[in-house]
């Protein structure tokens, strides 16, 4: 960007000030190895929690057997790190096709001649040993794949993304609890306004300097966003229950045509995993049956349900640009931050991430995660549906493969932002973009509302 543009539309973190770029080659290798090890520890937790029979079972037509995710994690690591970056011989060229997500739909994967649990575990171990060997020798600058260890960061994110998918499979599985974690912190902020006004004007969306950002987050580009109001917190279970109890699921006027057709066809009357008992809503959560906690963000709602709630509340969903401006824009400097709280990496004090807890935290639980404008819990807890279709930014170039993002661009997928309690820190940023079909509910998705300003508020 030219200096004149920067002055008008703000900048992002200086490339030289980026925490990863400031590291020595040795420290960057250690940081990268740690990210890969953290992902592998989590994959172990998710797959060791159940027996072998369970690992090869399909718990839902929407999901793969856990053993498929595990070997697919290894297969991608082999393709990118061992073969591509490392230039090494393939370990298992014979299984490439089985673990190519584009060759076989999730529903068909159990019928494939997959590696068994023991074979899959041995395979990912062998791949990892080779990948670490490649990491110890690869130059971490120069080529686009190796620059700042990009491909290694991409693979750590890929494993964490599948770990979140496996966590969603756990939520769908029947039976007693097998995953355990402490409760998240309670609300820790006092009275705050219900909505925050975001001033109109340009801000810098996306990134051109974030070393491990994926292709769809690039490049940074100025976007004009009109003044609007956004909810301080994600919509809670208590608020969403009010919509359901007021007959929101029975009244077509709150729904889009597509949403109403979907609601009717599947007879949807509440968020997935909820059940109405005599006088209260209950839910199943990783094998536990419990009262729906009012103060937590609602989770397991589709885009269509989110949109209907917003219409009922006389609001709307934010666009993706609005969400990102609320999260990153610092009105004091005009700069776009890496995270709502600043440019520093997420800690346990900033956000509910990384499966440290098996649920979203109450709204107000993360005072240190607040954005400069005063918006809370944009990162962590629940993915947030936006009203935007998934599309490439101006100047988008697919990298390193079209099948990560580009083949999903179009009106069929809606963008989700911010990550959930099941998203690892390596796989979320202020610029990170997730996407899914508007009917999906098994993901850890909720939402917050936005609205246009009234003429009086515009002044
Ligand atoms: C970005 C979460 C939509 O899981 O489908 C995993 C990530 N891409 N393997 C997905 C991904 C290839 C992707 N999402
Ligand atoms: Fe994948």
UniProtKB/TrEMBL annotation:
InterPro entries: CTDL_fold, DinB-like, DinB/YfiT-like, EgtB, EgtB_Actinobacteria, Sulfatase_Mod_Factor_Kinase, SUMF_dom, SUMF_sf
Listed pathway(s): Amino-acid biosynthesis; ergothioneine biosynthesis
Highest rank taxon of the organism: Bacteria
EC id: 1.14.99.50
Binding positions (Fe cation): 72, 158, 162
Major enzyme class: oxidoreductase
SUPFAM superfamilies (alphabetical): C-type lectin-like (SSF56436), DinB/YfiT-like putative metalloenzymes (SSF109854)
Keyword Iron in annotation: yes
Reported function: Catalyzes the oxidative sulfurization of hercynine (N-alpha,N-alpha,N-alpha-trimethyl-L-histidine) into hercynyl-gamma-L-glutamyl-L-cysteine sulfoxide, a step in the biosynthesis pathway of ergothioneine.
Protein name stated in the entry: Hercynine oxygenase
Species of origin: Prauserella marina
């Amino acid at each position: 960007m030219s200096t004149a543009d920067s002055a008008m539309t703000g900048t992002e973190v200086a490339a030289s000030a980026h925490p990863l770029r400031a590291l020595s080659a040795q420290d960057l290798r250690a940081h990268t190895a740690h990210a890969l090890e953290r992902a592998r520890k989590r994959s172990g937790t998710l797959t060791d929690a159940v027996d072998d029979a369970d690992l090869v079972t399909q718990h839902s037509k929407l999901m793969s057997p856990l053993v498929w995710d595990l070997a697919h994690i290894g297969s991608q690591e082999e393709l990118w790190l061992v073969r591509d970056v490392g230039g090494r011989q393939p370990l298992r060229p014979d299984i490439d096709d089985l673990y190519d997500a584009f060759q076989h739909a999730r529903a068909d994967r159990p019928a494939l001649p997959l590696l068994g649990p023991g074979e899959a575990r041995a395979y990912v171990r062998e791949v990892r040993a080779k990948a670490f060997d490649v990491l110890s020798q690869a130059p971490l600058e120069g080529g686009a794949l190796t620059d700042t260890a990009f491909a290694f960061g991409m693979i750590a994110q890929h494993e964490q993304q599948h770990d979140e998918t496996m966590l969603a499979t756990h939520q769908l599985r029947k039976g007693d609890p097998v995953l355990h974690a402490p409760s998240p912190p309670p609300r820790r902020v006092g009275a705050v306004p219900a909505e925050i006004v975001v001033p109109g004007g340009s801000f810098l969306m996306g990134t051109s300097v974030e070393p491990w950002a994926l292709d769809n987050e690039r490049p940074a580009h100025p976007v004009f966003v009109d003044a609007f109001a956004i909810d301080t917190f994600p919509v809670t279970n208590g608020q969403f229950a009010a919509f359901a109890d007021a007959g929101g699921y029975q009244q077509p006027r709150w729904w889009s045509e597509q949403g109403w057709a979907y609601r009717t066809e599947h007879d949807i009357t509440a968020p997935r995993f909820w059940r109405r008992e005599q006088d209260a809503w209950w839910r199943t959560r990783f094998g536990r049956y419990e009262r729906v906690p009012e103060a937590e963000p609602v989770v397991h709602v589709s885009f269509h349900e989110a949109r209907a709630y917003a219409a009922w509340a006389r609001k709307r969903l934010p666009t993706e640009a609005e969400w990102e401006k609320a999260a990153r824009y610092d009105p004091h400097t005009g700069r776009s931050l890496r995270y709502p709280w600043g440019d520093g990496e997420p800690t346990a004090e900033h956000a509910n991430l990384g499966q440290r807890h098996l649920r979203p935290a109450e709204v107000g639980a993360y005072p240190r995660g607040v954005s400069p404008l005063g918006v809370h819990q944009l990162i962590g807890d629940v993915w947030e549906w936006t009203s935007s279709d998934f599309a490439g930014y101006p100047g988008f170039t697919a990298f390193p493969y079209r099948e990560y993002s580009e083949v999903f661009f179009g009106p069929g997928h809606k963008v989700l932002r911010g990550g959930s309690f099941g998203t690892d820190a390596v796989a979320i940023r202020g610029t990170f973009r997730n996407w899914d079909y508007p009917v999906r509910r098994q993901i850890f998705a909720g939402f917050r509302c936005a609205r246009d300003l009234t003429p009086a508020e515009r002044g």
